[in-house]
Write a structure and sequence with these properties.
The protein is an alpha+beta fold. 34% of the residues lie in helices and 19% in strands. It is built from 5 helices and 4 strands. A 4-stranded antiparallel β-sheet has the order 2-3-1-4. α2 packs across α3. It is elongated, with a radius of gyration of 20 Å. Keywords: DNA-binding, Transcription, Transcription regulation. Pfam families: AsnC_trans_reg, HTH_24. This is AsnC family transcriptional regulator.
Length: 162
C-alpha cells in the first residue's frame, strides 16, 4: 500500500463500494455500479484504484470449514526460549507455507506467536503439533486452545463512514 494513503482519503462512495464487495466479491462492475447509482466506467475506475492502492488485496470465497472436513479449530500459542537467533524468522517462513495455518500473529504477552489452525480431527491436530511445531528450533513452549463452539467468525473489516 502506498505510504501516503490514508483511510481518510476514502469518500462515501469508496466506502460503500468496499462494504458491498466484502459482502459479495463476485459482483461485476455493472452490478456494483447499479447498486451504487454510478455508471460502469467510474465504478470500475474506483474499484481498480482501490486494488492498486492495496486497499483491496484480493478476492476469495468464504468456505465452511466443517463441510470441507475440518472439524477442529485450534489456537496455538508459541513461545521461543531465545529471541536473539534466526529461529523466529525461520519459524515464520515455515508457518507461511502451511495451508492448515489460517493466521499467524506475532504478539505481546507470554506467547510470541498465536496461530489459528484447522485440522480434520484431534489426532491430525496432535500430529501437526508434534511433527511441525515441536520440530521448530528455538521453541520453548506450545499451548493449544481448542474452539468448543464458534460464536462469531468474521473476516470483514468495518468500513466506517467519513
Amino acid at each position: 500500500m502506498s505510504k501516503d494513503f490514508a483511510s481518510e482519503s476514502l469518500d462515501t462512495v469508496d466506502r460503500a463500494l468496499l462494504a458491498r464487495l466484502q459482502q459479495d466479491g463476485s459482483l461485476s462492475s455493472s452490478a456494483l455500479a447499479e447498486e451504487l447509482s454510478l455508471t460502469v466506467t467510474p465504478c470500475w475506475r474506483r474499484r481498480k484504484r482501490l486494488e492498486e492502492l492495496g486497499v483491496i488485496r484480493d478476492y476469495q470465497a468464504n468456505l465452511d470449514r466443517r463441510k470441507l472436513g475440518f472439524d477442529v479449530l485450534a489456537y496455538a500459542q508459541v513461545r521461543f526460549g531465545d529471541h536473539s537467533g534466526d529461529a523466529p524468522d525461520r519459524f515464520e517462513k515455515v508457518i507461511q507455507a502451511l495451508p492448515q495455518v489460517l493466521a499467524c500473529h506475532k504478539v505481546t504477552g507470554e506467547a510470541d506467536y498465536v496461530l489459528t489452525v484447522v485440522a480434520r480431527d484431534l489426532e491430525s491436530y496432535g500430529r501437526f503439533v508434534e511433527d511441525v511445531l515441536r520440530r521448530q528450533p528455538g521453541i520453548a513452549a506450545i499451548q493449544s486452545s481448542l474452539a468448543l463452539r464458534e460464536v462469531k467468525a468474521e473476516t470483514r473489516i468495518p468500513v466506517l463512514p467519513d
